[in-house]
Automatic annotation (TrEMBL):
Coiled coil: none annotated. GO terms for cellular component: extracellular region. Gene3D superfamilies: Chitin binding domain (2.170.140.10). Keywords: Signal. This is (African queen) hypothetical protein. GO terms for molecular function: chitin binding.
Amino acid sequence: MLGIQRLVFLFIFLACVVENKAADTSHSKRCMDKSVTQVTCEGATYDGYFMKHPDDCGLFYYCSTSQSEAVCVECPDNQQFNAKRQACDASYRANCDL
């Protein structure tokens, strides 16, 4: 019985990993497709600095003081980056003007 439980757990774990990989691929593609304007982290004064994406309200950039390149991050579905709160938020609160 314990062997079956381990097998079921392994199957569920692998399914989650495969699903996560597919999500990562589409996320990266959206960031690449929507990133027309070049962005750098030169103005970042602390680790974990977020800045809005200049071309897409559902994306934002993560910056740290240890790297000059901005990392594109996607907000969850139906959310947009709220620059004032420095977080993804409901679109009506995000005040994105793109």
